[in-house]
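Morning!

This is the sequence you dropped in the shared folder:
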Amino acid sequence: MSLASDLIRGNTETIILAQLMVQDSYGYQINKTIQEKTNQEYELKEATLYSAFRRLEAAGYIVSYWGNEGSGARRRYYTITTEGRGNYRMRKEEWEKSKNMIDLLIEA
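The structure's back. Tokens below.
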């Protein structure tokens, strides 16, 4: 489904922000949640995910911190900022408007 993948890819940052609206998380867990929610039909490539993290952090929408795991590798967690919450709401509203417009345009 390349069209669906293209639509999703264009909303990667919104999808990440949506996950962080629920709770702080790290890259692997966010990707795992995306896979679970899409019944294994979609996953973000690691490079795409971490590029989006860098853009969101540079924009001030998320901040990262190191977890304090007792065993295994330390994880870099991400949390959404107040500005990020506002940006998520705006992006979600834009998505809803776009989705409604597309629905109108493709109705037979």
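Headline: The first helix runs from residue 2 to 9.

More detail when I'm at my desk.
O.
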